[in-house]
Amino acid sequence: MGKTLFDKVWDKHVVDSVPDGPQILYIDKHLIHEVTSPQAFNELKKRNVSLFRPDQVVATADHNTPTVNQHLPIKDVLSRNQLAQLTKNCAENDIELYGLGHENNGIIHVIAPELGITQPGMTLVCGDSHTSTHGAFGAIAFGIGTSQVAQVFASQCLLLDKPKSMRISVKGKLKKGVLAKDVALYVIAKLGTDAGTGHFVEFAGDVFENMTMEGRMTVCNMSIEMGARGGMIAPDQITYAYVKGRNFAPKDADFDKKVAVWERLKTDVDAAFDCEHTFDASDIEPMITYGTNPGMGMKISESIPTKNNASFEKSLAYMGFKKGESLIGKEVNYVFIGSCTNSRIEDFRVAANYVKGKQKAVNINAWLVPGSQRVAKQIKAEGLDSIFIEAGFELRQPGCSACLAMNDDKIPEGEYCVSTSNRNFEGRQGQGAKTLLVSPLVAAATAIEGKIIDITKQLN
Ligand code: SF4
After folding, report:
1. CATH fold label, 286-459
2. What value does the mean pLDDT take over residues 267-293?
């Protein structure tokens, strides 16, 4: 029987196997940030073990960083200490750190691809759930816990049970205004937040084949929101063109040699998956979530389902919504375009294209937070900054920002935030804040109108 893309990458990285048990997997790249690494560094110190391959570890500061006045000392003591500790740990262990203010700084899942650190066929881990993002390159990438971060520090390996395989195919052509985020929210709404439990997902079909790398990263980023260990997409010419010429990408003849290897990273026609799902692209429309998990999503033109279920009702009560209600016309006060899901240049191009020549509504606080210094630079180079500033948007400095309430960018209690991030859990964006997940296009339209609109009416 043939092999899946996942099998091919996994099998190549197996160092040893326990008969009928777990396997030891070699990890090519270990990405770290300030939140989940300190405990692992302490563990190493306690055991008097040194880092096995510091040259394969890359660090950034992203979760705790402020997104204004990054040149000034950080006001928040906890955040300041977290960053100082990361700087100290990286210096002591000879790890490359792209700290605050560095030209390569940004959200770990944005900078590793844009620097060419993420490449097809690799294994990548990070003490962060959304490591699944890197699967867009045909890599096995997944989040790990703190004790596993220490394991990788010490051995560059992990002891793991091989996950089951799932293929999600989306076939056909997407309608105008339907973005990668809508595809992800649609699939999660259809399958639920635990459909992927114990599985690694391969996204296949012409929708993903025709998607940009930015779009593929958005989809793989969201794969863990359906409970999967990670998601991946077979590398192709779009992938190679994205990787080529980036700082850490192989150069010249080495690049061509790598492409010849990457070309083999496709699921064989006779490979079998433990589970398969197929969707029709023409059924997907701009999406929005109405509840407190990413599976509680619907087409923006639809009404909230009428389910009799205690946790469903609790979730709607938190959001202040009713069963059967449409969200069209609902006023919101915050719009956030950012996070490792949607903070790449393509996301800001989409938003700027909609916003150009318009003014944001007076009730709206519109926060735009690039995923990296490079994205911020490109926004300026393309003149998107003036479009946003003239429209009354607030263009901030890179970081995780309002994706999670771990820095200064918190959504106030009781406020709605239409957000391009990946999680709408209770309190995720601030205590009592209410998150509605959308694409950058829907976020931009909400900022202009000051309320949720049926964007599909403007797209015909
Ligand atoms: S942007 Fe959000 S989801 Fe992504 S790494 Fe930062 S906190 Fe995690």
Report:
1. Aconitase; domain 3 (3.30.499)
2. 98
Query: What pLDDT is attached to residue 166?
Result: 98
- What residue ranges do the domains of the chain occupy? 5-275, 286-459
113 Cα: distance to centroid of ligand 1 (angstroms): 15
Cβ proximity of 203 and 276 under 8 Å? no
List, chain by chain if needed, residues with CB within 6 Å of any ligand 1 atom: 62-63, 107, 109, 128, 130, 339-340, 400, 403-404, 421-422
- For a substitution probing ligand 1, which of 64, 134, 337, 340 has the most ligand atoms within 8 Å of its CB? 340
Give nearest CA residue, ligand 1 atom 2: 403
CATH architecture of 5-275: 2-Layer Sandwich (3.30)
* Burial (Cβ within 10 Å: 0-12, 13-18, ≥19) of residue 381: exposed
Total-model pTM = 0.97
For residue 367, what are the β-bridge partners? 336, 394
d(CA 107, CA 243): 18
The Å distance, Cα 246 to ligand 1 centre, comes to 23
pLDDT, tens digit (0-9, with 9 covering 90-100), for 369-425: 999 999 999 999 999 999 999 999 999 999 999 999 899 999 999 999 999 999 999
Mean pLDDT of the chain: 97
